[in-house]
């Protein structure tokens, strides 16, 4: 009897333990379920949050594009302003005043004390009211002066082809690596070089079979110098051909006045005497 009671009590304990274990495992299951539900809820919230953020970003972009559109629509207005400004160009006419010190030509609107209207304006823009002293300009040789300022046929031809006449008397050419890529677009011509800009003067006499160029023209085959110079130059604008008499005149003028030309002529005499030609 006692044994039966003991067995019953032990069985009861076992059952309670089993029930407890079951309850505990159920609880664990529930907790796990809860955890997974919570996790999925958090994930859902995160997704929602991301979607909301994306929406906000899109909205912001759309608003910005509206702003851009607004500025775009304002552009024609600003164009109108610039057109107005363009139409309202201030034209001061020709400069009618002269600086009292060096006779520089000036506009009345360039005067000192702009707020004060006067019949005898003072100017500082040219020589700081006489403080900057410039040496008087040297008068060019008469032949050149006449070509540069005269009204005759030769003067007109000279001014029309002035770059050709200038380049045919150069002693050397410009040397360097010229960047030709820079002028591909629109806008004014740009001359850009890389590295050191210099040029060796080269030999005093042309190589066998070559035509004389630059300083060689002062030394070699000077009996035909005028024609050699014209041949060595790209001739003017085509409409107004270079005039041999002007070339000859410039040649004499330089021989008389230019120390470099005189030096090369001395070299020519040395070569002549030594019979190099
Ligand atoms: Zn002045």
List keywords for this structure.
4 strands; mainly alpha; binds zinc ion; 277 residues
How would you describe this structure to a colleague?
α2 (142-149) crosses α3 and α5 packs across α6. Residues 62-81 have low confidence and may be disordered. The strands form 2 sheets. This protein has a two-stranded antiparallel sheet with strand order 1-2. It contains 7 helices and 4 strands. The termini are far apart. The longest helix is centred in the first third of the chain and has 86 residues, at 2-87. It is mainly alpha-helical and 277 residues long. Among the domains are: 92-137, no CATH class; 142-172 and 203-273, no CATH class. β1 (97-98) and β2 (105-106) form a beta hairpin.
> How far from one another are the termini?
155 Å
Beta-strand portion reads under 5%
Instruction: Give the overall average pLDDT.
Output: 83
Strand order of the largest sheet: 1-2
Q: What's the gyration radius in Å?
A: 48 Å
Largest sheet: 2 strands, antiparallel
- Global structural class: mainly alpha
H-E order: HEEHHHEEHHH
* Chemical compounds bound to the protein: zinc ion
- What is the percent of helical residues? 40-55%
Low-confidence stretches: 62-81
Number of beta strands? 4
Number of helices: 7
Q: Label the overall shape.
A: elongated
Q: How would you briefly describe this protein structure?
A:
The protein has 277 residues and is mainly alpha-helical. The protein is built from seven helices and four strands, in the order αββαααββααα. The protein has helices at 2-87, 142-149, 153-160, 162-167, 225-231, 244-257, 259-273; strands at residues 97-98, 105-106, 177-179, 192-194.
């Amino acid at each position: 009897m006692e044994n039966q009671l003991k067995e019953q009590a032990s069985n009861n304990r076992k059952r309670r333990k089993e029930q407890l274990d079951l309850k505990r495992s159920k609880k664990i299951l529930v907790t796990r379920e809860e955890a997974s539900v919570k996790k999925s809820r958090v994930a859902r919230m995160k997704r929602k949050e991301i979607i909301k953020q994306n929406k906000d970003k899109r909205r912001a972009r759309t608003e910005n594009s509206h702003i851009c559109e607004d500025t775009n629509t304002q552009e024609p207005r600003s164009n109108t302003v610039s057109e107005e400004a363009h139409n309202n160009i201030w034209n001061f006419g020709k400069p009618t005043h002269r600086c009292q010190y060096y006779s520089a030509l000036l506009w009345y609107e360039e005067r000192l004390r702009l707020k004060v209207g006067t019949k005898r304006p003072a100017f500082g823009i040219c020589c700081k009211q006489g403080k900057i002293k410039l040496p008087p300009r040297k008068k060019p040789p008469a032949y050149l002066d006449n070509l540069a300022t005269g009204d005759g046929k030769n003067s007109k031809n000279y001014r029309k082809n002035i770059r050709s006449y200038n380049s045919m008397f150069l002693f050397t050419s410009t040397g360097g690596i010229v960047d030709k890529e820079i002028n591909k677009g629109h806008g004014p011509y740009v001359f850009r070089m890389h590295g050191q800009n210099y040029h060796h003067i080269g030999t005093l006499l042309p190589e066998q079979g070559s035509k004389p160029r630059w300083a060689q023209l002062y030394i070699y085959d000077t009996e035909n110098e005028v024609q050699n110079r014209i041949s060595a130059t790209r001739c003017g604008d085509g409409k107004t051909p270079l005039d041999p008499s002007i070339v000859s005149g410039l040649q004499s003028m330089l021989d008389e006045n230019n120390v470099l030309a005189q030096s090369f002529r001395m070299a020519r005499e040395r070569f002549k005497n030594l019979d190099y030609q």
